[in-house]
């Protein structure tokens, strides 16, 4: 219930709030168990049964909790929540929360001009001067992108695979 709005906790205690409307995991579990016993989930009898089992919850609180469940179901069915990029965090169900993964940026291939500028910078400044190569020669790339490109360039240069069996690569160009 309300997995889209779960509240995380750092303890195993059953009395910590589990949902946005401040129900504990145990209360929510009891609610779900009663929910499976009724065909008409909107009946007054259902709400009264839950409130009877949890006298500290009013019928209105049970109805509100039920409405949150319906809202979550509507959101899921309308595909307004990106489950592809969501992961569940926490070992215990009481500690669950939804965290959105960062979207990975698509790599932009190096242009011939960028690679030639990289080679000039590498020739004049040497290996390890990625920050200066970035500032002076390849201003369109970050130092870490240049370092990564240099690793790939060196690996390509040192490979034992015959040239005719390799796929074409910008890193085949070794002189500016």
From TrEMBL:
<dbReference type="InterPro" id="IPR009057">
    <property type="entry name" value="Homeodomain-like_sf"/>
</dbReference>
<feature type="domain" description="Myb-like">
    <location>
        <begin position="102"/>
        <end position="154"/>
    </location>
</feature>
<feature type="region of interest" description="Disordered">
    <location>
        <begin position="148"/>
        <end position="176"/>
    </location>
</feature>
<dbReference type="InterPro" id="IPR006447">
    <property type="entry name" value="Myb_dom_plants"/>
</dbReference>
<dbReference type="GO" id="GO:0005634">
    <property type="term" value="C:nucleus"/>
</dbReference>
<feature type="domain" description="HTH myb-type">
    <location>
        <begin position="102"/>
        <end position="158"/>
    </location>
</feature>
<dbReference type="InterPro" id="IPR017930">
    <property type="entry name" value="Myb_dom"/>
</dbReference>
<feature type="compositionally biased region" description="Basic and acidic residues">
    <location>
        <begin position="151"/>
        <end position="169"/>
    </location>
</feature>
<keyword id="KW-0805">Transcription regulation</keyword>
<dbReference type="Pfam" id="PF00249">
    <property type="entry name" value="Myb_DNA-binding"/>
</dbReference>
<keyword id="KW-0804">Transcription</keyword>
<protein>
    <recommendedName>
        <fullName>HTH myb-type domain-containing protein</fullName>
    </recommendedName>
</protein>
<dbReference type="InterPro" id="IPR001005">
    <property type="entry name" value="SANT/Myb"/>
</dbReference>
<dbReference type="GO" id="GO:0003677">
    <property type="term" value="F:DNA binding"/>
</dbReference>
<keyword id="KW-0539">Nucleus</keyword>
